[in-house]
Amino acid sequence: MESHVVVIFPHPDDEAFGAAGTITHFREQGVPVTYLCGTLGEMGRNMGNPTFATRESLPHFRKEELIAACDVLDIDLHMLGYRDKTLEFESKDEIATNLLTYLEALEPSLVITHYPGHAVHPDHNAFGAATIEAIKRMEISKRPKVWAQAITNTRFEDLGQPDVSLDITPYFTKKFETILAHQSQAAGVLGDMDPSIEKLADIIKTKLSTEQFYTWHF
Asked: 7 forms bridges with which residues in the sheet?
């Protein structure tokens, strides 16, 4: 069993759509989970339906949504304060140095992050690369395992089958609640700006019933 899991993603809702079932799996085992969230997703296009946020107020709403989602998952949260949609232009070395400080303090046995180059969004790729760099700098004896999430359409062709494939059906309710906590994003991210709760649940069950990761080999 893991001793401590650290999830490192750049945006509020990344933990919900990508890893909420896996996080719940660990929390039900009593494993502590910490989320290092890079930005507040303040440049996101979705502002609720009907619209309840503006460009200026969106960071506040997304912060509150993130806190609510982490409360649902019962995990610790650290907001790192980077600017949304700019991580690819930040120094990977400086981000890695910052992440290393957290990792050395938290001493995780497992880190979950995005697979660099196979995570679609530039922020995902950049933050995943910085995470890998931070862990690479750790003493080998203290280095955690890394599960990297690839979401490109060519991931199976390029990387083969994932090492970890978790059926999160037993944790569906928790994943659903976590996604709904991100009120401004839920419908838009799933591609339907005005679904019923029942339809949204069906979409999540169909598209997000399995969470898959590749073990990163240093």
From this structure: 35, 112
Can you tell me the distance from the alpha carbon of 62 to that of 85, in angstroms, rounded to the nearest whole number?
Answer: 15
**Residue spans per domain, the chain:** 5-215
CATH topology of domain 5-215: Rossmann fold (3.40.50)
CA distance 98 to 203: 37
Confidence of residue 207 (pLDDT cuts 50, 70, 90): confident
**pLDDT tens-digit readout, 23-34:** 999 999 999 999
Q: What is the pLDDT of residues 136-153, one digit of tens each?
A: 999 999 999 999 999 999
Most confident of the ranges 48-57, 89-98, 181-190: 89-98
Q: How far apart are the first and last CA of the chain?
A: 22
Measured in degrees and rounded to the nearest 5, phi and psi for residue 167 equal -75, 110
The DSSP secondary structure of 24-88, one letter per residue, reads: HHHHHTT--EEEEE----TT-S--TTTT---TTTHHHHHHHHHHHHHHHHT-EEEE--PPTT-GG
